[in-house]
Design brief:
globular; single chain; 16 helices; 65% helix; Rna Polymerase Sigma Factor, Chain: A; mainly alpha
Length: 289
Amino acid sequence: MNPFSATYDPKDEMSLVQEAQEGSKQALEKLVNLHQGFIYNIALKLLRNPDDAADLSQEVIIKMITKLNQFKGKSSFRTWLYKIVIHHFIKSKKRKSEAEIESFEKYGDFLDSAYTAEEMTAEEHQKYQDEIIFIRNNCMTSMLLCLSRQQRIVFILGAIFNIRSHIAAQLLDISAENFRQQLSRAKADLFQFMGNKCGLINPNNPCRCAKKTKGFIKDGLLDPSRLQFRDGLLKEIREIASENNSRLDNLMEGQYLSFFRQQPYENKDLGLLKSLLLNKDIIDLFRLN
């Protein structure tokens, strides 16, 4: 579910908000379920590590619940909520997964040196197809970590989920023109790196997903029986992303962006609702029934 897509119905959501503010536990639960998937998938692209993404998502969902009575309907609920989400994501403490990859230079050195001779046979390519896709997706998200948090958020919103610039700008409290400029710079930095390193983009580059995959499996760093993206996999991001902002952009950048939009969109249950809705402070705050 993408709360910024054309299929999203804000009227239904407003009814849930009003009922939750009046004390309906069922409405509050539906409201959280409506947004937690999209929040988690933004966090996952921001941080790469599923546990870090789940923790960050839980922090912001708790903030949403405790601030819900402050929503007065002066803007759409999705704008109000995702302003909270984005600002919390940008200002929250640095996670361990972010410290592991500090720059394009550092990540480029890893790609140039790690598992460069681990060739796969045709049979291995077939056998480990899911593992190769997993490593490719992990690599794409690792590239995002080379961007600053602000750049990552801008790229995730504008390039991966294709949220229109005037909406994304509201979430970041900047002008639409400023958002487009920041998005353009983030794309330029990321695509330059991909063009110089990624074998999928430029066959002359030596880096190959299959080589890295075989090396990770051989060294016990990747367990084919426990691929994280299999758990709760719902669909690809491109299936829930908003319509293309521009056909021209799609034609010019499709080769680069397609790898990001083919990443899994995970339907992950954060296991948060039951404990929250039994919390005495939450019950008292909303007079839940």
